[in-house]
Design goal:
Blueprint lengths: L1 H17 L6 H24 L4 H4 L1 E3 L5 E3 L7 H19 L6 E2 L4 E2 L7 H20 L10 H28 L9 H15 L8 H24 L8 H19 L11 H34 L7 H6 L2 H5 L12 H12 L31 E3 L18 E3 L2 E2 L1
Antiparallel strand pairs: 1-2, 3-4, 5-6, 6-7
Helix pairs in contact: 1-2, 1-4, 2-4, 2-10, 4-9, 4-10, 5-6, 5-7, 6-7, 6-8, 7-8, 7-9, 8-9, 9-10
GO molecular function: ammonium channel activity
InterPro entries: Ammonium/urea_transptr (IPR029020), Ammonium_transpt_CS (IPR018047), NH4_transpt_AmtB-like_dom (IPR024041)
Subcellular location: Membrane
């Protein structure tokens, strides 16, 4: 139960990357319940239940009544294509972030994230988690052949992710899709490679995993550029990583399956297998897209999908949660801002950086400032003491290094 629970949760959380910074908090609850409760269970029944039509497949007279069925070992389609399509619909329904696309000048503004090191840490956690995600899909380890299949899945996951990361980095540096050594592109490339390998990581030879990863990187960068060209704002490239990588992963199984793939067997059955992979992909896309349009459309109609413009411009931490992720008081430049606020509203309150003293006393603690310009605060022309001022704050002049604020 817990293992399948994490798969359902993953399909839902993929969407958050595409709707970040502009989606109402209540909308997260609604679409998460809808995806995990209605969309995902149907798809997982089709593909992984013993009675699902994609699992059962069909027999063909041309193959002497051999059965051919859809194959998706660890969820390239069931989890990632599903989540990627839902993310795409959500991003389209929401529209781009304010200032992202400038139609008149035909330019695209770069809106950067808060911390590349934290993004790198998150990428590492995902990379490590994928080993359990794919290896654990074997479900058992006590039967004959289980250990080999699990080991193959883990090794192929590492190989595909590594080659995809390397290829993404090179493509971005060689001016194919950019001109820099981008860490963020490398991280997303690695994730795309691991998404793509999910469908057949238990049946690929290691060298096939290299090819799957290399092509996954190209698919990722192509989808990423295409999203921008279409004016669809996806802050975390969730669609490119999950839908792009997942759809390529489903197709790759038909070619690189070491027993029945087109590049190995090259027979009619492998052709039918390609057909079943395409059918499974189309079915997942159609089911997910139709229901996602319904839920996001209803949220939009009831005006609970996107936050108001003012809240989006200011950021959602304070208006929605009253808990800033990066409080200004914790940073050097925040001390002078906090000091001014306290002087205007309550001159006897102790502020961070001036511990164990009120403003009636002489200021001797310099505080953990980032720059010397913030160290000397002159209140009403005196730098000797910070004297109390009236509660109304009328006539206050704050000067920092002879500059009035």
């Amino acid at each position: 139960f817990f293992f399948q629970f994490t798969f359902a949760a993953t399909a839902s959380t993929i969407v958050s990357g595409a709707v970040a910074e502009r989606c109402e908090f209540v909308a997260y609850f609604v679409y998460s319940v809808f995806i995990t409760g209605f969309i995902y269970p149907v798809v997982t029944h089709w593909a992984w239940s013993s009675g699902g039509w994609l699992t059962v497949g069909d027999s063909y007279a041309a193959l002497n009544n051999e059965v051919v069925a859809y194959q998706d070992f660890a969820g390239s389609g069931v989890v990632h294509v599903l989540g990627g399509i839902a993310a795409l619909i959500g991003a389209i329904m929401l529209g781009p972030r304010l200032g992202r696309f400038h139609r008149s000048s035909n330019t695209v503004a770069t809106i950067r994230g808060h911390s590349v090191p934290i993004a790198a840490l998150g990428g590492f956690i995902l990379f490590f988690g994928f080993l359990a995600f794919n290896g654990g899909s074997q479900l058992t380890i006590s039967n004959s052949g289980d250990g080999e299949a699990l080991a193959r899945a883990v090794v192929n996951t590492v190989i595909s992710g590594s080659f995809a990361a390397f290829m993404s980095l090179i493509l971005n540096r060689l001016r194919v899709f950019g001109n820099t050594w981008s860490l963020l592109v490398t991280i997303n490339g690695a994730l795309t490679g691991m998404v793509a390998i999910c469908a057949g990581c238990n049946v690929y030879e290691p060298y096939a995993a290299c090819v799957v990863g290399l092509i996954a990187a190209i698919v990722f960068r192509t989808y990423s550029v295409l999203m921008v060209k279409l004016g669809i704002d996806d802050p975390l490239d969730a669609v490119a990583v999950h839908f792009g990588g997942g759809s390529w992963g489903l197709i790759a199984v038909a070619f690189f399956d070491s027993k029945e793939g087109i590049l190995y067997a090259g027979n009619l059955k492998s052709g039918y297998k390609l057909g079943w992979q395409c059918i499974g992909l189309a079915a997942i896309v159609a089911w997910t897209a139709s229901l996602s349009c319904l839920v996001f459309g209803l949220l939009r109609c009831f005006k609970i999908l996107r936050v108001p413009q003012e809240e989006e411009e200011k950021g959602l931490d304070i208006p929605k949660h009253n808990e800033p992720a990066y409080p200004v008081e914790a940073y050097g430049h925040g001390h002078i801002e906090r000091l001014i606020q306290i002087l205007e509203n309550n001159p006897t309150v102790v502020t961070q950086g001036f511990a164990n003293m009120a403003f009636e006393r002489e200021i001797t603690d310099k505080g953990p400032y980032e720059n010397p310009e913030s160290r000397h605060v002159v209140v009403n022309g005196s730098s000797e003491k910070a004297k109390p001022i009236n509660k109304s704050g009328n006539g206050i002049t704050i000067t920092v290094n002879n500059t009035k604020l």
